[in-house]
């Protein structure tokens, strides 16, 4: 069993009320092999919501209390991101997930890249808050980029 970012399944739960649907993710969920989650909604944030970025580090730093998640209006939403990460971990445990396919660049779900905290659309290496927590608990996290590349090669 896997957990997947709900936006990749087609749920309009991104900050801008859009989705990033990937057909193979929809298929996994449809076959009962994956459960969709949105850590930001699970943490109590609304959709749509202000875009947020990690300031002062990455998801590991947020978990360690060394960085914060701030929205573009300067509001501290760290608590909601932490709550969503722990709710996602609980869901992963309940369904026996050993792997998560999450949305790259997200302050929750980024597995390799996140935005750098300047709201300039610049990216840096690092993990989102949920990714960092899942990895600390032995759950493998992979980027949806792999799924998208597979779909593109399959359609050729």
Features:
156 residues, alpha/beta, four-stranded parallel β-sheet, two-stranded antiparallel sheet, 7 helices, 2-thiour_desulf
Secondary structure: elements and pairs:
Elements: E1 2-5, H1 6-9, H2 23-30, E2 34-37, H3 39-42, E3 52-55, H4 59-63, E4 68-71, H5 78-95, E5 99-102, E6 113-115, E7 123-125, H6 129-136, E8 140-143, H7 144-154
Parallel strand pairs: 1-2, 1-5, 5-8
Antiparallel strand pairs: 3-4, 6-7
Helix pairs in contact: 5-6
Could you characterize the architecture of this molecule?
This protein is of the alpha/beta class and 156 residues long. The protein has one domain (2-154). 37% of the residues lie in helices and 19% in strands. The chain contains 7 helices and 8 strands, in the order βααβαβαβαβββαβα. It has helices spanning 6-9, 23-30, 39-42, 59-63, 78-95, 129-136, 144-154; strands at residues 2-5, 34-37, 52-55, 68-71, 99-102, 113-115, 123-125, 140-143. The strands form 3 sheets. A 4-stranded parallel sheet has the order 2-1-5-8, with helices on both faces. A hairpin with a 7-residue loop joins strand 6 (113-115) and strand 7 (123-125). The radius of gyration is 14 Å and the shape is globular. It starts with a strand and ends with a helix.
